[in-house]
Protein 1
Amino acid sequence: MGGMPAETPKIVPPPGPSDRRDMVGWFDPGPLLGTGFNVLVSTLFGRHSDYRLLEALAAGGSDEVHDFTKLDGAPREELWLDYVADTGDGWNSTYAVAYWLSRPSLSVATSFGAASATRCGDILLFGGDQVYPAASRRDYHDRLVKPFETARNYSPEPEPHVFAIPGNHDWYDSLVSFSRLFCSGRWFQGWRTRQKRSYFALRLPHRIWLIGADVQLGSDIDALQIEYFKKVSAQMEAGDRIVICTAEPHWVYATAYEDLDPEYNENNLRYFEKVLQRNGSSIVAYIAGDLHHYRRHANPQGAQKITAGGGGAFLHPTHAPDAAKLGGGFDLRSAYPAASVSRRLTWRNLLFPFINPKFGLAMGSLYGLLGYFWNQGQGMLLGPLLLILGFILFTDTHSAWYKRLAGTAHGLAHTAACWILLVGIRRLTAAFGITQPLAAEAFSGTLLFAAGALVGSFLMGVYLLVSLNVFGRHSNEAFSALRIEDYKNFLRFHIAKDGSLTIFPIGIERVPRRWKATGSTSPYDPQLEPDDPASTPPHLIEPPVVVQRADAEA
């Protein structure tokens, strides 16, 4: 899937418009069933067949720490690192991030003062869920490799390095595609891979450590991984600073879903944190994706908890679920897009039938089937009960009370709509004088299917709008339905000569919808560039977040 050639590198032609994948239609019947199947299989088998154990054995028990404290044998005084998570959905969103992230230098416009000058990272870190909807080899190639290949397929010396941790979508094929791409010594386009397992430790200049942990499908951190990080922590000293990267922002989920599971997955991660800090080092930042937006929390001591899953996947809301205050004194300091923008975007669910036209096939079939049994005098109660049960199962599983009450109300709304449509269609059939049984059944069935496709989809959109904006539920479903490719983000870390760590949160408000060939004859340059006047350049989401040196804070 790409690499550094022994001979002169050659230009790889970019994919044509027809080969650039659209945003995933999560409510299309295919992805809808496929995702449900993947979740079912991973729940039943994934947590009981831990690929990380085989991975650790295959790595030969390696306790390797990737050391970036020196460059050409001399101490490294500064370092840049790029972080991106939740990539590989639509072409426009993923390529926009890859394009700007891979530019050698980037001056980031800002409304907070002078533009900030940054440069491409010496290290690129993928923070999980590299591809959607599932980790097939083809999706990895089309939705992740091709965008980055088109942005930068080769790099001049000294070449940058890439590391990655897997998210739940990467685990849907038991980490096979992820390991092939990131753990087998291959090149990832213009970046050199080095890791042998799905977790790693990076030793950075000025006593900063970056820890990439793998929490498989929400399960515990495995014993071999804990043992590895115990050996890593033995190399740390009092005053060392740690940045932890995980695939999920457990700090947000523990607050948002405490009504369902007060412990969520924090006990296991608290133990992991104690392992890392046992020699007196301190955790100064937590970084995660999984939620496709930018939100930063901080405590009075300056520790940061940042969610930055804006690498290319559909946008997630920032106004729900509520996470203004977290445990440990962490308060919300910034959100992108702003909560007011997020709430306004939710109203697009009223256009649900037009954004998700294929979902109408499912709703039309459901209404048609229910109407058929009613016409036959069968299933008068059984049909609605099964329908209500189905919508209860669909309803937000993070709240038991909402699951029962909202699921029942949602199911009753569709039952009532189907009955009203059926009565109206019967009268219309009689008005047209269609009395022959087969003709009447075909006519009414066709109309009920068409009307059910539209009305059923519209009711789904209304349900998601009310659920999110009124009750703060269904944040994932309400925004996956919208397939918003804008408001992307990535992080740029800078370790300066004085040892300070600065985080630049970079946003792209509107990604380009059109691209044109650059005409460059250099294999190190992008092959496509923006050709959309309505698109916006990268900008700072908020002023750079400065994490001072530990000894300066003491």
Protein 2
Amino acid sequence: MIPLNTYSYLKDDNKNTNSGLALQKLLVLSFIEGSCVMVAELAGGKMLAPFYGTSLYVWASTLSITLGALTIGYYLGGRICNNDAEKRKKFLFFIIACASALVIVMPVWANFIMKQTLNLGFLSGLVISQLGFLLLPVLGMGMVSPIIISLLAETKNSGTAAGSVYAISTLGGVIATLLTGFWLVPLIGISIPCIVAGSLLFILNVLFLRPQQKLLATLVLLILAPSALYIKNAMSPATDRFTILYQKEGMLGQIKVVDFKVKLQNHDMTTRSLLVNHNWQTWIDKDNPSYSFLYYTRFTNAVISCLPAGSNALLIGLGGGTVAKQFEAHNIAYDAVEIDGRLPQLAKQYFGLKGTGNLIVDDGRHYINVCKKKYDLIIIDALLGENVPSHLLSIECFNSLKNLLAANGKIFIEFDGIGENETGMAQKLLYHTILKAGYNCQLFSSVAPDLDGDVMYLASSGTLTDFDTAQINKDYYYALQGPMKNFKIAFDKVPEELLTDNNPALDFYLRQRMINVREELLKKQNQSFLDDDMIFYY
């Protein structure tokens, strides 16, 4: 324990209390500062999601900028410690005031910056955006700990003081991470935790280091005003073209249910989408919820229609319930596994799912590992934009799936197509892995013979001719038709590499595709939201 007389130079400006109280105040500031760092980091990543997604690139940028800002902050804070105690206290007050104010206005500032960087491309826009709204507040808070340590310790006690400050600051970060990630963000969104954490640090800083009550009230009101106005505007559910029916943060990131007007084949209509981090997960006709605009759903419907009466099916990835509704339409008993507990309710409330199947909230791979049931058809529909769950496509997972398949049971997997400038290595690796796991496998393209539509895999340990005559029907949005066998494709030069749990190579081979997907969203879909003044997060 550090002797209190070590801190005899620390005085409370309001009351003649002992140095122990001053010590406690500095440690409280350190605790709240640590909380603010983690709130800013988590919010910084979440704010990016509607613009830039949640891929490895996004979190690598968030972590590197956070750590880089702390590194610079620690260094600059250490340089300030060369001043006398009174100057250090003045510096500490000024730095905390600036850093906490930047956290309070982060929702407004981040939204403004990201709108300006949309045309810079994915990687450039991502990094420049975070440098603009995350670097300075975290850098400022990084300067706090060295200054507090210098105020608390003389040379002989510097180690104990440093350990105490970093421990209490880290504890604040741990608690803030758990509260923010598991409770606050899903419940009240991204902006309010920033405002609350930043305001608390700002107020305590003024009370402990410069207790001027009138100034405090004025400053807090001035700083809170832009963020409060932003949240008020963000709560507005409708624009000229878009109506937001639901918007929450959570397990998968941000989820929106949006109605929007489009002109398709010379028809003005209102469609409804489930957006996960502003990526289309489900897209239906609002007036006809059974109609999906996503091409691959014609193929899932064709496969499901061929199942004999009494069949059991497993769907991994419920989304808005489009495929589950197909099971219901054909009277097929099904289990649907979805990792995000919000989606089953949204599928029923907004997308017409009756919910006659067994809706399970679980990770797909965990369910596969513990399930004891047998299924005639397993559909893996958990691939979303730049987010591909490698653990559901490894050879170990396919070996485990054998235990769930009934005699001659089938596995259906939807994968995005191969773009003009892409090698298709990821799709070919998946095909090779399915074969090596002991399955027969057929490949289909929604725009056969081209490969740039949806690439679909149909695998079985038995025969695969059951679905050759299953019919794909055209409609006003999808122009192709015919038996499924007409949509078969083949890969040339299949690689020998396998997808394993220890070698999830999909992330590596899909890195350019991840960038392409987000840049396409940035340039077209997100721009249409911005043109209509739709809020991306609140």
